[in-house]
Amino acid sequence: MKRNASALAVGVLATGALLLPAAPAAAGQFHGVDVVDDFDCDGVRDEVVLGGFYDVGSAERAGVILVRSGSGDRLTISQNSPGVPGTAETDDGFGSSYAGTDLDGDGCDELIVGAPGEDKAAGMITIIKGSPAGLVLSRSTAFTQNTPGVPGTSERDDDFGAVIVAGELGSGQPYLLVGSPGEAVGSKANAGSVYYLRGGVWRAFNQDSPGVAGTAESWDRFGATLAASDRHIVVGAPGETLSGRFDAGQVHVFDHKIAQGVPHPIASISQDSAGVSGTAESGDGFGLDVSVISYRPSASAPIGALVAVGSPGEALGSDYETGMAHVLAVTPTGKVTEVSDINQDTSGVADSTQAWDRFGTSLVLAVNGSDVTATPSTALLVVGVPMEELSGDTTGAFHLFLNLKSPGDRDVWLPNATDGLYDGYWNLTATTTSLITGEQDGSPSREFTWTELLGGELSWPL
């Protein structure tokens, strides 16, 4: 397995000694697209651990969610917890997804928990009130597609709540996005829809909504992945069929303006789009993860979006599912320009492509600088490689790219030499201070400060 001497490498030897970057980059003031989860309003991030596969009593995979406050208090929540709507039942998957944001404007974040397996996978979300005393379970509210005001009807295998994203617009108004990738659109099973709550109004949109490119088709799974900033919404449809190529994948970009009753669509992107590298092929899974931040390519340019798209099923040469990531700039009018396409055979990028690495399974964008809007010199990207093999063991790895136009320049390579993190895959979150890696199997999240990552102070695993 090759190692590029030009790439920055941070890792751990068998003895525990650090491999330091030859020329450490200076850490800056980082901005992430996700709000910090602060349910007790103390100004300290509260840790959330997903446990959607946990058993609750005799109810297998009923699910729990674990919250540890900044002061160290721990709370385990299930649908059998007093005040939480519903009952823990087999395969509910409560705690399979979550988001946190201040929905009621009192300064404390609410915890929004997904249970996509509820009621034969019709799905449900639960909003748990935050307060200075912590989460108030007695003030929890559940929403399904049968809840008054929520469009549609709860149906088996809708998977409502499979993914949740929440945040605030620049005005401070909160919003909530809920993916329902199993939603049938007309007779098209698993076409997928997204539900958007803002200003007390729920709206649903899919590929048959006004202005959205394409057509809702069976197994598109529109809404299987979501990302949002204060300006934009990105929706992945990784099951999209393009010219007979199944699971090729497609991504849609919206802004938060409401047009014809739904968020305003501004771009649709696939590997068949002009200027986008590669070719849409069966199994690519373009859009299996997405991320977005505000971006301008120059000081005089209008603020648009920088979108990262994972395509972990991408085959390179004769190697299947090696994976690829695309970084795309989108103007406010919907013009799409590819900044780069990245894989482990890109010049200067550490390691080499191997079958089944699935590079791009997870990714997140962040901003290094004093401005929350990224520029070519301040945007960075972290990409997960969950099936990376090191010394014959599948242990996983990350890449941190600091130059997105030339990703092999200052590629920080983060191999995990001692602990198999791949089992639960990763949910990556970028905050102003840290990269947070969370898993879907109840494992504790891991937090790495940008100073550690860029300054060679990392000790992995924590």
TrEMBL record:
One Pfam family, short name: FG-GAP
InterPro entries noted in UniProt: FG-GAP, Int_alpha_beta-p, Integrin_alpha_N
Repeat recorded as keyword: yes
SMART domains referenced in this protein's UniProt entry, alphabetically: Int_alpha
Region (Disordered): 76-99
Top-rank lineage group of the source organism: Bacteria
Presence of keyword Repeat: yes
Keywords: Glycoprotein, Repeat, Signal
Signal peptide residues on this chain, from the entry's feature table: 1-27
Record's protein name: Uncharacterized protein
PANTHER family: GAMMA TUBULIN COMPLEX COMPONENT C-TERMINAL DOMAIN-CONTAINING PROTEIN, UNNAMED PRODUCT
